[in-house]
Amino acid sequence: xxxPMPLIIGVTLAVLLGLATFLTWFERxxxxxxxxxxxxxxxxxxxxxxxxADGVKILFKQDWIPPFxxxxxxxxxxxxxxxxxxxxxxxxxxxxxxxxxxxxxxxxLFVLAMMGMGVYGVVLAGWASNSKYALLGGMRAAAQxxxxxxxxxxxxxGVVMQAGSFSMRDIVLAxxxxxxxxxxxxxxxxxMLAGVAETHxxxxxxxxxxxxxxxxxxxxxxxxxxGMFFLAEYAGVVLISALLATLYLxxxxxxxxxxxxxxxxxxxxxxxxxxxLRAALPRPRYDQLMALGxxxxxxxxxxxxxxTGAILLLHAPG
Amino acid sequence: xxxATPPRPADLRAPDTMFAQVTRASTPAILAIEPTRxxxxxxxxxxxxxxxxxxxxxxxxxxxxxLFDLTVIDERERTHRGNQPASAFTLVYHLLSxxxxxxELRVKVPLPADRPHAPTITDLWPNAxxxxxxxxxxxxxxxxxxxxxxxILTPPxxxxxxxxxxxxxxxxxxPPYSLTEDQEKREQEALRFxxxxxxxxxxxxxxxxxxxxxxxxHPSVHGVFRIVLQxxxxxxxxxxxxIGFHHRGAxxxxxxxxxxxxxxxxxxxxxxxxxxxxxxxxxxxxxxxGIQVPPRAQMIRVMLAELxxxxxxxxxxxxxxxxxxxxxxxxxxxxxxERVFEIIEAICGFRMHPAxxxxxxxxxxxxxxxxxxxxTFLDHLPKRLDEYEKMVMRNGIFRARTKGVGAYTLREAIExxxxxxxxxxxxLEWDYRRRAPYACYDQLEFDIPTATNGDCYDRVxxxxxxxxxxxxxxxxxxxxxxAGPTKADHPLTIPPPRARTMHDIETLIHHFLNVSWGPVIPxxxxxxxxxxxxxxxxxxxxxxxxxxxxxxxxxTPSFPHLQMIPLISRGAMIADxxxxxxxxxxxxxxxxx
Lengths: 318, 593
Description:
Chain A: The chain crosses the membrane at residues 6-26, 73-100, 106-127, 148-166, 178-197, 226-249, 261-281, 293-316. Chain A: It is a multi-pass membrane protein. Chain A: Its EC number is 7.1.1.-. Chain A: Its main location: membrane. The complex is a heterodimer. Helices cover 67% and strands 0% of the residues of chain A. Chain A is globular. Chain A has one domain (53-314). By secondary structure, chain A is mostly helical. In chain A, helix 3 (71-88) packs parallel to helix 9, helix 5 (132-163) packs parallel to helix 11 (286-314) and helix 7 runs antiparallel to helix 9. Chain A has helices at 5-34, 50-60, 71-88, 107-128, 132-163, 168-173, 185-198, 210-213, 223-248, 259-280, 286-314. In chain B, strand 6, helix 4 and strand 7 form a beta-alpha-beta unit. The longest helix of chain B is centred in the middle third of the chain and has 29 residues, at 295-323.
């Protein structure tokens, strides 16, 4: 069964952007539910058209670039942020037959590379804004995202070792017996924390840190450029959830239900978990975040690699 | 049961009080001893002696003495001064001692009308800094040797000293206001921060620190409050709090409102404290007028004040957790606060600013069913507090963000004029409701919660424990509410008693005058002081025998608390500063008045 590539790309893009827009509303409703209030419930059934209303509003806002900003970079930054997230989806297999490049033999490395690029979106935004709050946000983003990239890369190595491949499709197929969350529970936890830090969401939303920095790196952004950051953040949440589902929860595999639904269910549940994290946790301080990364997560992920390697060696045939 | 021992005026003059110390050691320096209505010993000291006298009072071994308040009285238009020494501007120092039981001292210094100046006491008490700036700003008193005397409440471009009697008090006394472009530029320029002015160094010849303008509009400064930060990376080298954006001239308004019609203004000073602000004001007026408030009114007052303490502390709790990034608790706590407001609305008819207290009592009796309403709430809140304990106080990240952050010692707290939960978080079991029980606090049982480290976490701990104690007090009020009138039967109460107005012309005339002009309060000075939500709140009133106050001094707790921010935030990170600001529990209206 082959699906034409342009159709796959088109559908993936449409679903992703739609999902990110939907999430802007869904998160607020969910937070409202957990915080004993309603959230946006006026536009459309249950308020679902709120996302559309927001989109219209944000599109019609004056597209303002502060006179003190570095124009070119200022415009480029949100595009980088959005682009890297969308490109990463290229290698995520929704099912065995439905993916843009799920079989890419360096799939996982590609994702990591794209995330590395994504840092530029935030850092350049903070730099180009030429404002102190944005600069502080950008500085935090650089330190946080680069550090957490290290643990993210190390944490997935266990999966790669077990699956014997960087291809996302092969990784999912390798989980047909047992989901990797069981043998790789340590790696999964580290990956998840690093994922939260990569998407800079509470509790690791220090680059934005509204209580401290106003809006952090995107303080000076308005209109659709701000909208891009906003959507890229939600697309990032979906991406990390999709990656978690793919790498640790067996991807599209599951009994009874059709594979795309399984993939959607797993990803959706993880997105809700991300939102619950935001509802529940306060934000650590910058140095505490760094200490957590380098003093706890780094040794843990190294331990994970060593243990996985040792066990694989012991069970190696011959 | 903890037995409260109310201090009697006689105790104040016992040996080793500050008053005794001053009168014994510096007899030649004393110009006069002023008898006061409020039993706070008051001595007049000449300008050239005052620094010595105050320095002796604050010796290292007796350092548990706080500069509680420092203010000025413009005496130039006052007629009823009694035997007080001649003075155009009187400096008033109010000292408070924690070492002894029930010891306060007011030191007054007469100053001439022409270029009034006095020695600074910033070398004795660091919190004198802002108070002296305020005295310069509002009265034009120069303090010799002050490190940086500047306008603190009015804009730097202001002309004149607003609290002087010859300064206009109303917009109608002025030509219409206009703002030209040049003027606007000048005003903008005046707000520019000049680090050199504050004695801040450059990092080195080629590099400079980053100066970050936090506020006046910033999500975490709880109102309009600016802090200029000198930063090295994210670490705070120095901080300069800039206040005055919320200054509304509450003290000046006091001189233009009748004794009665000023009550609603007080509500808006600590706008989270509601009737808690009426309390010291009406207490001071009642002391001046010699009104005895009936027991039922006393207990209604205490009950409402404690309900407002709960409401205010809930806001503190919620915003504090939000300041360290926790999104949800604030919604739960505001929901609970709404339940407090339901009770307050049922009793007073208003939510945040009920202005329910009256000179001589309260506005009206309690409505039918009030007790059931409160009892439901009393049963409801403790369970919720237990949940919040789990959600906020036992949260690892919250602890990491607040423990050991923004700590000050007991000695520092007293040197900087800290009162209320911030003082008790340093381990001093000291509460004005216990130390000098006003209203009916002597009949109520409650504990004084304390903590030991004086950091952000401990300040939250004390606040939460106080909510529980307030619940206990409210329950006792509900159980023991006495019967009887809710208003004193006294001609100076407002609205005046009218039962007999239709029977004799004398009462009718008094009623008419007191309603139309307001009551004439006998001349004199008195203060009312309470343990408000955020610390000690004191109204110092002077009547010159008129229908309006001659001078209304509002000593608010938040003012000195903010002054302390640089001390406890140096070397911390920006995120720590946010936690510190959150844990101080201030309201900008309470700072700027």
